[in-house]
Amino acid sequence: MIEKREELYTSRARAFAAEEEKAASKSTLVSWLRVAVFLAGVALAWYFFSNNNMAEGAITVLLFYALFIVVLRWHSRLDFKHQQLMLLRRVNEQEVERLQGKLRNFDGGDTFINAQHPYTSDLDIFGQNSLFQLMNRSVTSIGKSRLASWFRNAAAPAEVLKRQEAVAELAQPEKLDWLQALLALPMHYKHDQGPADTFMEWFSGKSFYRQHPWVKVLLFVLPPLTLAAAVAWFYGYSGWIAVALLLVQFWLAYKFRVERDEYYEKSIGIYEAMRSYTRQLQHIEEHPFSTAKLQQLRQGLQQSGTTASASLHKLANIIDYFSWRLSTLMAFFLNNLLMWDFFWMYRLENWRDKFLPQLKESLDILAETEALASIAAFQHAHPGYAVPRFSQQQFEFRAAALAHPLIFSVKPVANDFEMQGAGNTMVITGSNMSGKTTFLRTVGINMVMALMGAPACAERMLVAPAQVYTAMRTADNLAENTSSFYAELKRLRMLLELTEQGQPVFYLLDEILKGTNSRDRHLGAMSLIRQLHHRNASGLISTHDLELGAMEEELPGSVQNYSFNSDIIGDEIRFDYKLTPGICRSFNASKLMQLMGIDIENNKQAHI
What we know:
It is built from 22 helices and 14 strands. The protein is α/β, with parallel strands linked by helices and 608 residues long. The strands form four sheets. It has a six-stranded mixed β-sheet, sandwiched between helices. The chain has a four-stranded mixed β-sheet with strand order 3-7-4-5, covered by helices on one side. Strand 9, helix 19 and strand 10 form a beta-alpha-beta unit. Pfam families: MutS_V. InterPro entries: DNA_mismatch_repair_MutS_C, DNA_mismatch_repair_MutS_sf, MutS, P-loop_NTPase.
């Protein structure tokens, strides 16, 4: 199925590339037409004015200016279409790259990495070669943040079911064009990290005209009076009135220069994002949906008779006009004749009073839709993945052909797996490199995917909701003067504290207490299993310690032994990576050391 999807995306990329080439040619042609209109208008106007045909010259200027604007807008639309086709081609190329495991150039969500989180660091949720790189399609910061929050926090089963229904609708083959268009639209614009949240937080507490109501009065009085005085001066009246009014405007601009700069700098920071959000929201508003969640999201974009895209478009236009102040010459005349900055500050505050609550809700809806779109694109790319079902039985986990979604170099070996009930521990023994740790991560990462509403890398999967907790990658912390053993102990203490809270905890522990001697490691591991047995927890523990297998007799029915094995054939070690009942009986450490050049027999003779 992956091969068929790769062929599909490759075919789509080629088709978009062909359309892109045609659109580029048309855009170039219209660009030259724009130049021709401009030159023709200049030549004709010069002809009329040079022959003292002032009326004809003025009419020519107006007509050709209007025609130039029409052609300019036509060219802008064509250029946008050309860019969209280029981005759609890139979207499909990226899908191929993900299927091939080429994740290096995708955002790993490094800002979301948290070593103290219950599982994200151990399960490669964020960072290089991560699940975030594989699944995320969002370009906007709000979309990425929403998807990251779903990775970090399991949703309630009812919410997961709603997400699964929405994702199933968006992942339908007939929705692919709409879905990829939604993902490509924000690529036209720059997206800084979290500009919308920062802007809304700042803007909510700002009220320049409430603090200075007299400035609002001057805003509607001074510019008309100044223009009238300037016209009167042109017709021979005293110019002192105009000069005085200009000086008043100049004084106002100087007095509130800090406020003016602050309003502009804060608003211009979200300009690109607002244009992007406008396009995306309009794309969502215009599309009919059938599932309840998507219908609810779409309906939330229409409030008080104004669509979310329309209100954001107004904000983008306000910021655009505000930016005219960047021209030094233009800003001098606009601010000293028309109080330009003050006018757009007023428009910003007026917009906020009407639409800020709607902006917050609209961006929340957009973030939700983008996160769903990421999962839908992932599900479309992997049609063979299972949509997990939820179990009412505590800690039930049943999967057929469970595999790891981040293994690309070879075809991942799939395993059937099942367990259920509180207080159960599956002890997994195995030789080096046999697949113990990878299997733990396979179980964990698929459980995380299931509990966020994504498909799982399995043929079938049934899972009971639980808090996933891992202890796998513990390392020294020189800044905190912490050894890896102590770091692991802290991690296990967090697990015990979590189980004391009463919520079901599904743990995945890899080679626990490996930083101490075998006697203490054995004693500590057995004590931990006994302690967890009496709590609302179940999970998997991988180990080289065969003595832990004896706990299957101590706690019959609650501890089960499974293993991964290897075979040594000549100088070759072969792994089947298959989960097998019972304790591991084949180990390969000595053979691996021999293959690395360590003469085991000679060392043995030397000691004798």
